[in-house]
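Glycerol-3-phosphate acyltransferase: structure tokens wanted.
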Amino acid sequence: MSIGQNISRAILQWPISGLVNHKSLPENPITELNLDPARPIVYALKTSSITDLMTLQQCCEDLGLPGPFTPLELGDQLLPRYVCLDRPPPLFGKRNKPLPFLQEFHQLLDLHKQDPALDIQVVPVTLFWGRAPGREGEEASGWNIISSLAPNRLKKAMIVILKGRENLVRFSPPLSLRHMADKHGTDEAIAHKLARVARTHFSRQQLAATGPKLPNRNLLFKQLLDSSVIQQAIEEEAQREGISLEKAQKRAHGYMDEIAANFSFRLIRLGETFLGWLWNKLYRGLSVNGAERVRQLAQEGHEIVYVPCHRSHMDYLLLSYVIYHQGMVPPHIAAGINLNFWPAGPIFRHGGAFFIRRTFKGNPLYSTVFREYLNLLFAKGYSVEFFTEGGRSRTGRLLPPKTGMLAMTLQAMMRGLDRPVTLVPVYLGYEHVMEVNTYHNELKGSRKEKESFLQVLGILRKLRNYGRGFVNFGEPLTLNNYLGEHVPHWKESIGKEERPEWMAPTVNRLAELLMTRINDAAAVNGLTLSALALLAAERHALTRDELQAQLNTYLYLLKQVPYSPQSTLPDEDARTLLDQAMELNKFEVSEDKLGQIISLDRYQAILLTYYRNNILHLFAMPSLVATLIDRCEGISRSEIVARCVDIYPLLKTELFLRYEEEELPELIDALLGELQRQQLIEARDGGYWVNPGNQMRLLLLAESIQETLQRYAIVLTRVLAQPYIEAEQLEADGLMMAERLGTLHGINAPEFFDQKLFSTLIHSLRSEGYLDTGCKPDLGRFQALADNIVPLLSTRIRRTIEAGNRP
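Answer:
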């Protein structure tokens, strides 16, 4: 480091430490970027700036990384630990001569030629001083300090003063110079190539972090009104309604005003501060997984479409906060028109929400305006978010997907977007959902409470610690790649007005795949595991030791036979997880001389089904295997596989399970091996038997699938008793029998009486060929499936179902 830099560093040390509050991404680059601290590290920065270097030095010290001011010792040489592409522009006159970037890079490459064991990691680092993207229609000014991408020293000083508290230090994956030297050589041409790649990288980083300029609503409305598609829709509206063109145009403008977001970056910054306080008030912490992959896609220029599950009104705030906090651009969010009430509506609108009506039916002008607005968002490069379930889940399960927004996304892509469109499924989970009591009342038949300011105040009055929140970004799905694989001729439809025949079935398959990938990214926690165990127990009560042992059973299953690479497990052991769950005050805890008993009263049991259902899909197959071994002692491996294959299509559709049928034998072998390892079952005489010493743990595992099998048995036996029953009547009879079972046998789970699940089941039976399009059954197949499922139920349940089917 030069004498001048030493002096500058000494002078600036105090003001920078007071003015700059840095945040690093990722939060742990050593682990998340696979940095090897034992190998030399060199940082690559866009511009030579003493304030950038000093901020990076502070950040590296916090992260346990060597700082840029720490010389790189290679043998007897001391080399700088950083390289910069450019100098800042001078205050006056022309730009100084370029930095010796090429020579420095060439020197580092040449060292690899001299030392075959050397492998320097070059880590690109981008420093953001504020991330405001600006707004369309605003002219860039030489005095616009904050928006300057290459500020001189005076402007940089002002940026640090004004935006030092918003500093973001973004570490990118390391580049191995050994790999470059071995693959491409060490001559000067490679150094030139690295420089070009680095400039492109920093430019993309800037766009990924700030996004395109925010839309100017007036300009956006003018663009929409000038489009030929909306002009034609206005003319058709005028003819159809018998009104003037001026009135029809005013109506179209009103729809735009109702729909369009009015994104405010200032609100995003205020929101980050407020929401940071709110999450600390509400939750013990937030767990975020998979964000690095999404950041990489954004940097590569993908159009990002977030598709989260929908648990709570908090989802809108939580996901936008996390996305911004992870160094990405908050999306434009499709929100129900029911949320457009004062004061929430204007706040949501400034936060990126655009509002959508429940139905477009009977209003072609509104439909056209909405579609063109969405197309324009995609064309301008804004990320978008929509909830494909269409509404909040009242049961904790994923709802059947609504395909409207997904179809419009695909249609926008077919208009010739010049970049890949990637759907990012997102799993949102909570240890407490604020609306869960309201959901219970709605499922009992109460009218849905209309969203209002008073309702918001009611929620704010109840703020308290709600445990942890979870945001898991699932496996992204790039539409271009998906269509290339499943619809090879899709590009022939680009730019054509008519909807291609392959569109509807493709959208349906995409929707199912997205729901499956959301479930793949499930987050397991102490409360969901405790709910799973207690709801499976007789009288919903277990001793503390029994409950803790059952949590261990679940944890070992998920660790040894992972459901998905995207699902996440807690780091804590069963004892700690149980303590955390008990802190949420959702259980009854009593104690006698033998120890603690943890139980649920009737109301608690109903509410906790919501949290159990968040992870029920993870245990569907383990529970089915356990049920078969418990009910059919001595059952062979081949029979277990055959019976699972028979039942699995119904489970897959209902719970959005990830396995294909051909994967089941391998999965079942893994589950059988783990159940034996935990000594829950024994293998002898060519079959599998319950281990009497651990029978209770196996029975609790088996019980989790029982309510699902009971619903299947209700429908199957009803069709066998009355083969020519209509689909609507079958749904009604199934619902009536479910309610009867609930009353007689104490089944309280709200989804057990959910008509949507019976509708889904009948749809599955139809798609699997058990029913034809007219609901006429294949009685042979129905009887075989019933013979498989009904014996897995308890004798009491079977008798009640049989009694209900007698003439």
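The longest strand covers residues 421-430. The chain has a mean pLDDT of 89.

Cheers.
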